[in-house]
Amino acid sequence: MKDDAYVRTLKARAFDVARYLLPLATNTSLGQIVSARTLENQISRLLSSEFAEVRALGEKLKVAAASPAWNVQHDAARVLCAEVSSVDDQCGCRIAESLLREVKTAPTLVKYASPSEFAIASRAELAAAAAELMAGQPIEPAPVVDLVEPAGSLEIELATSLLYPECHYSWRQLQRTVSSLPAPRIAELVALGTKHRGRHDELPRTFSAGQTFKFDILMDIGGFRDMHRHRRCVQLIQPYTDLHGYEDPICPGQPTLAEAGLADTYTAAMQTAHAAYRTLRGTHTTVHSSRYPEDLSSGLSGPANEGVLTPGAQAAAYLLPLGTRIRAMFKMDFAEALYIAELRSGVAGHFSYRRVAWEMYLAVAKRHPALAAYFRIEDVNQPIDLLKR
Q1: Choice among 39-48, 100-109, 136-145 with the minimum mean pLDDT
Q2: Domains along the sequence of the chain with CATH
Q3: pTM
Q4: Phi, psi at residue 253, to the nearest 5°?
Q5: Are strands 213-220 and 145-147 parallel, antiparallel or unpaired?
Q6: What is the pLDDT of residues 310-336, one digit of tens each?
Q7: DSSP state of 213
Q8: Count of CB atoms within 10 A of residue 312's CB?
Q9: In 3D, which of 216, 161, 218 has the Cα closest to residue 194?
Q10: Contact 157, 209 (CB under 8 A)
Q11: Which residues touch 94 (CB under 8 Å, ≥6 apart)?
Q12: What span, in angstroms and rounded, lies between the C-alpha atoms of 266 and 248?
């Protein structure tokens, strides 16, 4: 390899591991291409967030969309207009009016974008309902990927979907508890999801139900942010917390942290970050060990339903390292399951989501053996060349 390619690739692989220690407060950037109608809904959703920073971002998007857009050709056009004006002032003025006029991209739609009282009120009541329903239950062990069985009825799935983003329990545990309720109580939980719906409020994504494949995924935040990019599926995301512990950066066929002499350093850093999180949050969580085992073989105790975020809890979330586990439900059809498994298992991908993609494939293959042959899957357990991406 050429030296520059070697160094660039090695740095990228080093960052694959080092990013586990980066806090959620680390700045990042993104760009998006979106329709005005979608932008209006997005701004409303951002303005309804529990996080002050997200609400501020919504305000900035609103101002940007209603303000004159940036004209990439403005400087060149200004020079051209000046040159034309030096020859013919009237012609120069007409050209300037055409080339330098301010264009507002979506002033009409976004000026009506405002916080969704429907979303804010529903979130608070559903969080309270989840806390009441699951009171006293420890969080049960859960695998990295759990392909859950059908709910039994659409009402049970809807009630579970509504409560899932407002707590830290697995879909399986929550669905089992909901299923044990009498039908009138399940109906009451579903009704909470529409109780505050106004005339122009769309149903939230929690009402998107009926998909065949439902993957309850528990993985590190850094890897999840790559999985989160898949928009063809429905995602229900639980809040950030330290309750599920953290992942070790383990890449098959590559040296472990212990072999590199960094295991103690890594563990101390993660535990320090989580301790700082708990201190700032004001909630003292009791766990059964200093580090949760990979399969979460022992239940967890503590505030599994942490309710509406206080200012301290909002700030504390920024301290959590990207290696911290987060739980999310991914609902999809067969085509999307195959697409994600194939794409994210590729050898060029990060070993974190490669593992998740592989587990998704195994879960589908176990339930539908005849469909396994359709997956063009990369076995993530096979060692890969560290310098190939």
Answers
A1: 100-109
A2: 12-31+116-374 (3.30.1360.170)
A3: 0.85
A4: 85, -5
A5: antiparallel
A6: 667 788 999 999 999 999 999 999 999
A7: E
A8: 12
A9: 161
A10: yes
A11: none
A12: 9
